[in-house]
């Protein structure tokens, strides 16, 4: 295994370059036409097993020749110079680097110690267990902490469905979350925690009115709009299980922000197709919102989507 280092989440001054979920994915095998050697490897989560799909990899000895990462995190550079090369892989705000000699396989694994993740516990979601499954650690916060200056110590903050939302509309919470994301922080919010997005970032997502907690339970087939998630799943649709009724329905969001979309049923009546998940940039940071989330009843597709969305925050 090649030596690996991590540059971590972009925060506090590093611009959002759009290298997260919503961009075209490069082919995982590219011909650099700069030599006769081959260099290949994989980009993986800190647990060393979960691939980072839909990432981008650069090689120092053939500048301008960039590869994507496939469903298994793999990449391959053909016809590169024979000398040692510095390669860097990135997705969203996560970046790993390694020095590699062509002919050997490189594993670029994200160092979990360079990323500080906070979460607010929820009654109906436990995204922190997905974080831990990927090999990261997560620190529990209270909803009151969202208005505290201590938020700045984190690079990512995750708000679970069913989190205490009594603070969502408080001016201090709204201002603090806006500053956090503008400064380069990343925010993940699921389902019933929507009021934090509605309060702090109202121009990006419109929720169904007058009450968005109306989605019927049932399994649905969603269209995978985002190309990186399409690569990760290996297909353009995903099986989504809304195991309880009353999930929050997104009314609309700009098409470029949509990650998945699918049918919405309310009281047995079809309401057409609506986004199930969206991600948008704010300043130097990003916000991801999902109507579905981590529960015991998740499908295999949901498990993979949640992992890849976290890796692309």
List keywords for this structure.
313 residues, mainly beta, Immunoglobulin-like, Rossmann fold, 2 domains, five-stranded antiparallel sheet, 5 helices, disordered N terminus
Written overview of the protein:
There is one protein chain. 14% of the residues lie in helices and 37% in strands. The protein is mainly beta and 313 residues long. The protein has 2 domains: 5-112, Sandwich (Immunoglobulin-like), CATH 2.60.40; 116-311, Rossmann fold, CATH 3.40.50. It has a 9-stranded mixed sheet with strand order 11-10-12-13-22-21-20-16-17, with helices on both faces. It has a 5-stranded antiparallel sheet with strand order 1-8-7-4-5, with no helix packed on it. Strand 4 (56-59) and strand 5 form a beta hairpin. The chain is globular and about 65 Å long. The two termini are 26 Å apart.
């Amino acid at each position: 295994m090649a030596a690996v280092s991590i540059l971590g989440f972009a925060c506090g001054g590093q611009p959002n370059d759009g290298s997260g979920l919503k961009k075209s994915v490069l082919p995982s095998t590219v011909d650099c036409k700069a030599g006769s050697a081959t260099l290949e490897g994989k980009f993986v989560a800190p647990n060393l097993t979960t691939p980072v799909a839909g990432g981008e990899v650069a090689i120092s000895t053939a500048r301008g020749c960039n590869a994507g990462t496939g469903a298994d995190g793999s990449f391959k550079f053909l016809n590169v110079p024979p000398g040692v090369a510095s390669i860097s892989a990135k997705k969203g705000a996560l970046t790993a680097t390694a020095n590699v000699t062509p002919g050997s396989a490189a594993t670029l694994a994200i160092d979990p110690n360079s990323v500080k993740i906070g979460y607010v516990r929820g009654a109906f979601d436990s995204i922190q267990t997905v974080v831990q499954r990927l090999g990261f650690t997560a620190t529990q916060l209270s909803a009151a902490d969202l208005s505290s200056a201590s938020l700045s110590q984190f690079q990512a903050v995750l708000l679970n469905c069913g989190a205490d939302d009594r603070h969502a509309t408080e001016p201090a919470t709204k201002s603090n979350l806006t500053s956090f994301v503008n400064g380069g922080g990343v925010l993940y919010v699921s389902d019933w925690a929507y009021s934090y997005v509605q309060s702090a970032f109202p121009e990006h997502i419109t929720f169904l009115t007058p009450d968005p907690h109306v989605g019927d339970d049932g399994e649905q087939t969603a269209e995978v709009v985002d190309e990186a998630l399409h690569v990760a799943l290996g297909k353009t649709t995903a099986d989504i299980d809304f195991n309880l009724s009353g999930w929050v329905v997104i009314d609309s969001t700009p098409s470029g922000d949509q990650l998945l979309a699918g049918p919405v049923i309310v009281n047995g009546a079809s309401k057409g197709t609506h986004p199930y998940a969206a991600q948008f940039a704010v300043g130097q940071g990003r916000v991801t919102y999902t109507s579905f989330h981590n529960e015991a009843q998740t499908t295999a597709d949901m498990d993979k989507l949640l992992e890849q969305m976290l890796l692309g925050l």
